[in-house]
Amino acid sequence: MAIFLGVDTGGTYTDAVILDEAANAVLGKAKALTSRHDLAVGIGQAVDAAIAAAGVKAADVALVSLSTTLATNALVEGQGARVALVFIGFDDADLGRGGLTEALKGDPVVRLPGGHTHAGAEVTALDLSLLELMVRELGDEVSGFAVASQFATRNPAHEIAARDLIRRVTGRPVTCSHELSANLNGPKRALTAVLNARLIGMIDRLVAACERHLLAVGIDAPLMVVRGDGALISAAMVRERPIETILSGPAASIVGARWLTGASDALVSDIGGTTTDVALLRDGLPEIDPEGARVGGFRTMVEAVAMRTTGLGGDSEVHLVTEGLKGGLRLGPRRLMPVSLLAVEHGPMVHAALDRWLSSEAVGEMDGRFVVPMSGQRGGLNARDIAVLDRITHPMPMVNALTSRLEVAALERLVARGLVMISGVTPSDASHVLGRLDSWDAAAAEKALRLIAKRRTGAGERFATGPEVFAQAVVDQLTQQTVDCLLEAAFGEDTGFASEVPETLARHALTKAGLGQHRGVIEVSVRLGVPVIGLGASAPSYYGAVGERLHCPMILPEHAGVANAIGAVAGQVSQRVTGTVSSPAEGRFVAHLADGLQVFSSSEAALSALEAALVTEASARAREAGAVDLRVTVDRELKEVEIEGRQMFIEAKVTATASGRPRVAH
């Protein structure tokens, strides 16, 4: 009997599941709250409970695999550590391309001359003494560095030199753009490197927390992590490349959905605390996004499942729409700590504040909101930010943390940096009021919803007559936004609408009329043509109404709440390496290798040399990632033109893929 342990750390819950790999059976499963202050606590509680439920010994576990949505959530919510970008050979206009300026969010940029040409020749020598001076000046302001050099995928020499210097001078983690992607488009590679650098500390803490608990309970087995394309990599490798874990949780959920249902064609919708992730399962396999993973508005160069990730979950922020006379609701994209959850550990403070606010006829702007301190790096904060942060020494009503409205912007910056979390009304609170959930403090949820229902619309009317009415409105809004997510994904995957904008089609008047089975002079009907597999602990609470609205079968598997953890140990290890052969002049063929350029007199000689190097590198990476029993495939993509009846070689892209099963303990 091969015992595998799968762990999934999400924004709200950490799940653990014990599988008998040979029998394809779930032996035990458990959930625990994700403990942001020390991730090892939540991981430990979930792992220990799952092992106990399965009735196995910790020492029997032969493989541990971890998936997570922490990186995805951080990008969706705009959070992450402060980093610096070393930008070599680019100009100011390049900073505005590909969303790079938005991703930097004011973090420092070190611009230097240098870089290479399309053919890999050096443009200008890199001034390492100037770079050393500039990175020393940054001091403790940043937690890590991203390095991007022009055409580094054709010659990475300047990125490697900059990386080595920064590590020697600062000791901080450094991410090079060429290590993450072999594709052109420097600003997009730089964006991916910036996001990777921003996530390193978070993922390192997660892996370390998991390793600590495994050691403590006597599990001596390889630790793997799920990548965004559903493949597995070793924990050591993911520490250097945490960006590859964006969409890790969603990718694991797709693998888990297939394992749980055996479905070949379906939309998989996974609702968590922070996001809803939707992907298409076609012929039993997830689609891979050829343009790179898109998360939180950023298009990265990370190969991942074709997934639409929306800031909509059980813990999404409830916004009151006050424009116009009628008013309305909107959910997300930011995750809040539900008031009912905060009250579990801080009940007296929460209830006292809610009772005080409810005793007043008027509802203040910050009533019903609390702030919770989180740990993190404080470098780069201004004096006002620090003053507010120093005041938030423990969970408290938001109004107590601020001395004036001028400090609201400072608080928002602290939230974006992950140093403070806001607690307020969420769909999870609404579900407690409606009796659909009973995990936390339902009385606190009832008071919080009673309070927010007292707010006034533009017409001067209360938003709802009571907490139950308001709670139902929140759940209805979640249903509607989930329907929109699924329709966007469906239109985006249907080739019949390839030239249309999926977001526009999903909200079009004809679509809405068709879902309502409009019958008039015009008759319109719309339904999904594939079933939906609903995953996530709260899916049974919400997704029945979603299936009815979309007129499609809704599959809710028995173990839907731990599908990510199941998918974490059901995957394979896979490493893909790509390289290029270019032809700068007739009869001259250049293989762009990791250790430099090699020139050949024939295209076949250059391709063979590149292919051999890539096979060696992919195999080495796969073994480093924890694979055994390797299978290697090679793909060539040639670009040629015909001139006067003769084929002329332009460029070739070669990809080597090494795959295998994960190594297990004996």
Please give the structural blueprint.
Elements lengths: L2 E7 L3 E8 L4 E9 L5 H16 L6 E8 L1 H7 L6 E6 L3 H4 L4 H5 L4 E4 L15 H11 L5 E6 L7 H14 L3 E3 L9 H32 L5 E4 L5 E3 H6 L7 H14 L4 E6 L4 E7 L2 E2 L7 E2 L2 E2 L7 E4 L5 E6 L6 E8 L1 E2 H20 L11 E4 L9 H9 L4 E2 H4 L6 H9 L3 E5 L2 H7 L8 H12 L13 H27 L8 H5 L2 H7 L16 E4 L3 H12 L3 E2 L7 H6 L4 E13 L2 E6 L2 E5 L2 H22 L2 E17 L2 E17 L4
Parallel strand pairs: 1-4, 4-9, 5-6, 5-7, 7-8, 11-23, 19-22, 23-24
Antiparallel strand pairs: 1-2, 2-3, 9-10, 11-12, 12-13, 12-16, 14-15, 17-18, 20-21, 20-22, 25-26, 25-29, 26-27, 28-29
Helix pairs in contact: 1-7, 2-7, 5-6, 10-15, 11-13, 14-15, 14-16, 15-16, 16-19
On the 0-100 scale, what is the average pLDDT? 89
Mind telling me the C-alpha Rg? 26 Å
- Describe the sheet with the most strands: 6 strands, mixed
Strand order of the largest sheet: 3-2-1-4-9-10
Strand content: 25-35%
Number of helical segments with 4 or more residues: 21
Please tell me what the overall shape is. Answer: globular
Structural class: alpha/beta
Low-confidence stretches: none
The N- to C-terminal Cα distance equals: 11 Å
**Share of helical residues:** 25-40%
| Count of DSSP strands | 29
